[in-house]
Every structure is written in structure tokens, then in C-alpha cells.
Amino acid sequence: MRDRLIDLYYQMQDFMAAGGPVLWAILALTILLWSLICERYWYFFRRHPAEFKAALSAWHARADKQSWYAQSIREAWIADLDIGLRRFLPLLNAVIAILPMTGLLGTITGMIQVFDVLAVTGTGNPRAMASGVSAATVPTMAGMVAALSGLYFATRLNRLAKTEVRSITDRISRLED
């Protein structure tokens, strides 16, 4: 088991070296992406139900539910819950949009390495150009894979937030009668 972990460590180190320095930025963005996704799921399934229950019980405890003032309080509570549900979703979408662009930055830096090798050694040494080609393709692939892996969850979280806000509005409105 220990040997497999050491092997995995060296393979990861080789992969990061092949992709160049931009791959470290992609790794950092990917960690941020998955941290945001995990935080949002934790909020949706752990923290939000308690907040909704508190708002619902506070609305149910009110004697006046028909006045303009009561309706304004209801709308404020719904807006607070909506803000909590949508928090960090724009940042999540921005990170997903930035990941492929960071991969393309890796392509540019890798091509610069290829051109440096061409300037120094000429066109006759393909082995010298291989590291630049690797540094050009690996970050692009890594950025695209990381963005695609988070895209499904970001779309699902956005849809979940919209559905939950509609449900909150309906459930609090039902008590107005």
C-alpha cells in the first residue's frame, strides 16, 4: 500500500512537471471549485432546512398575515433565504469559466517553450521540443476536464436554488389564508 502511494506521488509530480507552472494554477482553481461545490451542498442539505424551518415557524407564529407590513416582512424573509441559497453560485460559475481560459494560458506558455527550443536548436531536434508540446497540451486538457467536472454540479445547484425559492414562496404563502 505504501509503495502504491509513493508511486502515485511520483506520477502526480511527473504530470505537474509535464504541464508546466500553469498546471499549479489549474490545480488551485480546481480545489476552489470543489470546495465551493461541497460547501453549497452542505448548505442546501444541512443548514438551509433549519433556516427555512425558523422562518416558517416565525411566519406561522404571526397573528397578522394580511397587512402590507406583514407581507413586507414575509418578502424580506423569503429574500434572505434566497440570498443564502444563491450565495457563491456566481463565484462557482466564474471559476468554471476561468478554468478553460487558464488551460489556454498553459497552451501559450508551452508554445513559447517550443519556440525557444526552435530558436536555440533549430528544427532538427524534436525531442527538445517535446517538453514544450507537453506543456502546451496538458494544461488545456486539465482545464477542460476540471471545468466539465464542475459544470454538471453548478447547473444542478442553480436549478436546486430556483426550485427551492419557488417552494419557499409557495409554502409561506399557503399560510396566509
TrEMBL record:
Pfam families: MotA_ExbB (PF01618)
Membrane topology: Multi-pass membrane protein
Bilayer-crossing regions: 15-37, 91-115, 135-154
UniProt superkingdom: Bacteria
Keyword Transmembrane helix recorded: yes
Keywords: Cell membrane, Cell projection, Cilium, Flagellum, Membrane, Protein transport, Transmembrane, Transmembrane helix, Transport
Residue stretches making up the MotA/TolQ/ExbB proton channel domain: 52-168
InterPro entries to which the protein is assigned, alphabetical: ExbB/TolQ_transport, MotA_ExbB_proton_chnl
Cellular-component GO terms for this entry: plasma membrane
Record localization: Cell membrane; Membrane
GO terms of biological process kind: protein import
Family: Belongs to the exbB/tolQ family.
Name by which UniProt lists this protein: Flagellar motor protein MotA
Species annotation: Salinisphaera japonica YTM-1
